[in-house]
Amino acid sequence: MTDTGALKEAVESGKSGLVVPPRDAQALAQAMVDIFERSDIEEMGRYAKYLADARYSWASVASKTNALYRSLAFNSL
Fold first, then answer.
1. What is the 3-state secondary structure of 7-65?
2. What percent of the chain has pLDDT over 70?
3. pTM of this prediction?
4. Which terminus of the chain is less hemmed in, N or C, by CB atoms within 10 Å?
């Protein structure tokens, strides 16, 4: 994944994926080689799924949205 926009917030480089500079084909190619040489690639994948579920699942987003609306509603009273 390239280090641009909000995407860089979704990946913890070295833990749930690899982040490379934008428009750097060499870095991207090296990251692709590195990811398959890692002994912890399955652990990295599990952690990436955990983060995605915790941050972006419907239940998580609904809970965070509900909390935000409640805080706004009670702060405006």
1. HHHHCCECCCECCECCCCHHHHHHHHHHHHHCCCHHHHHHHHHHHHHHHHCHHHHHHHH
2. 96
3. 0.68
4. C
